[in-house]
Amino acid sequence: MAKKIVTMGELLLRLTTPGHSRFTQARSFDAIYGGAEANVAVFLANMGMDSYFLTRLPENEIGQSAVNFLRSYGVKTDYIVRGGERLGIYFLEKGTSTRPSKVVYDRKHSSICDINAEKINFDEVFKDADWFHLSGITPALGEKCITLVEKATDYAKKKGIRISVDLNYRNKLWDYPDFEKVMVNIIKDVDVCFGWINSEEDKEYSVADFAKQGVELDNFKNIFSNMQKRFNIKYVVTTLRENYSATHNAMSALIYDGNELYQSKKYDFTIEDRVGAGDAFAAGLVYKLVNGANSRDALEFATASAVLKHTVEGDFNLCSEDEIMAVAGGNTSGSVQR
Asked: Carbohydrate kinase PfkB domain spans which residues (predicted)?
């Protein structure tokens, strides 16, 4: 029987300039849907999970188009609330060489911002659920979204459902002190935390480029150990990205289980579309852990999943388990399969 995974967040309309055009050059945009938690939901559905997505979308043709888009990838939309006036939007300009990618948000007053958590039947949402995944992006959208996240995580914790939280701090959405004030309560007693809450001594690692400063494993072990003790988290996890250019990166990842800090293999790769790579990583780790894999194997699979996502256009990682396992096993030549 497939595992039931619940994810929750905002589904966005993604408008991307063609090729590597600048916003100021664009006369058209390529339109698809995406968003951190939806990206996780699609990957898990692609892996054969019973993947449910909870959000609020407008009761109009654009909202229905977004619902249909999720359904086309096998995501279960039973818990989507309808209402509000608009879908959130983000505009993407894909960088190249020395020019970085850029994102512009247009999501104020979107449907989810006015969601009423009191009207959501969490008994039904979490019935027979094996895992709940959320991120720090949703509470950045306003007080009602903070209430939604708090009520959902409290319910899942009381029911003993395994929980993963991707901190996903977005400085275009809220200030760090506000983020920290909310998230320190959300991440208490969860199973997996992606990223870490900065202490004064480790703030330099919040947006680090490890191609420039290198990876100091002892520092990470101290940071993760403090995180685990402070918040009673089973696994603290992060990716380590090395930025050589907008289209050439390297990546590995770390997981800490309270005793051992394990680092995955490092991959060097070129980028077709970077958006959603962190979500592919989170989804890969959740998929393996919920199916009983050990933390090392889960991390290797998650890292390979993230690396492959960089080769896929759009928000979603549409690679198969066999393809990810092949990369994790060392097959990174990209030779034609016949």
From this structure: 3-315
b/e sequence 130-148, b meaning 16+ C-beta within 10 Å: bbbbbbbbbbbbbebbbeb
DSSP secondary structure code for residue 76 in this structure? B
Domain membership of residue 159 as a residue range: 4-328
CATH number of the domain within which 188 lies:
3.40.1190.20
Q: How far is the C-alpha of 269 from the C-alpha of 117, rounded, in Å?
A: 42
Strand ranges in 1-40 using DSSP code E only, listed in sequence order: 4-8, 12-16, 30-34
Closest by CA to 241, choosing from 272, 201, 281, is: 281
Whether 337 maps to a domain, the answer reads no
The structure's pTM equals: 0.94
> Quick one: how far is CA 241 from the chain centroid?
15
How do residues 319-335 score in pLDDT, each as one tens digit?
A: 999 999 999 999 887 76
Contacts 24+ apart (CB under 8 A), 256-260: 256/220, 256/221, 256/224, 256/225, 256/228, 257/295, 258/225, 258/228, 258/234
Q: Which amino acid is at 207?
A: V
Query: Structurally, how many domains does the chain consist of?
Result: 1
Scanning 1-58, the segments in alpha helix (DSSP H) are 36-46
Which of 17, 20, 14, 21 lies closest to 36 in space, CA to CA?
Answer: 14
190 vs 183: CA distance, rounded Å = 12
DSSP notation for 155-200: HHHHTT-EEEEE----TTTS-HHHHHHHHHHHTTT-SEEES-PPPG
Name the amino acid, one letter, at 186: I
User: Tens digit of pLDDT for each residue in 142-198?
Assistant: 999 999 999 999 999 999 999 999 999 999 999 999 999 999 999 999 999 999 987
* Angstrom distance (rounded) from CA 289 to CA 284: 9
Q: Is residue 301 situated within a structural domain? A: yes
